[in-house]
Design a protein that fits this description.
Elements lengths: L5 E7 L5 H9 L18 E5 L2 E5 L14 H16 L3 E9 L7 H13 L8 E6 L10
Parallel strand pairs: 1-3, 1-4, 4-5
Antiparallel strand pairs: 2-3
Length: about 140
């Protein structure tokens, strides 16, 4: 029996580690990453390894105000919606959050509101949060 292809969609704010997480899940360096919090991913891209497809997206940049998105975010939402609607076998949408910036800022609230406002209700059952850039490995074990 052939294994079903599983797709995982990565979304989040700029610089929170979506591409790094994608590389980790794939076990290889596919998506461009930066040591600095700078924009690396310019368009939606995907890579398949075995039966796993990782879909990396550009980060949402500054989300102005509580309900206002800038033009780039509106374009990105439209592109993500189109990609999700034509994709098959999306099993998870991972909202990637930098654990060093875990405060619930307006940008984070707006990101979550955009997801809830713009995607079909059933897609919300597939959303998980992933915290990146954790420094817990720096603590000494007792």
């Amino acid at each position: 029996m052939e294994k079903e292809n599983i797709s995982i969609f990565l979304i989040g704010l700029s610089g929170h580690g979506k591409s790094s997480l994608g590389n980790f899940l794939l076990g290889k360096h596919i998506f461009k990453v930066s040591d600095r919090n700078q924009l690396c991913t310019r368009c939606i891209s995907s890579y398949t390894s075995g039966n796993l497809t990782i879909i990396d997206t550009p980060g949402f940049c500054s989300l102005n105000g509580y309900n206002e998105y800038d033009d780039n975010n509106d374009i990105l939402i439209k592109e993500i919606k189109e990609y999700i609607n034509k994709s098959k076998n999306i099993r998870a949408i991972l909202i990637v959050v930098n654990s060093q910036k875990v405060r619930i800022t307006n940008d984070f609230k707006n990101l979550f509101k955009m997801v809830c406002d713009n995607f079909k209700y059933d897609i919300l059952y597939h959303i998980s949060f992933v915290f990146t850039k954790s420094s817990f490995m720096n603590y000494k074990q007792k």
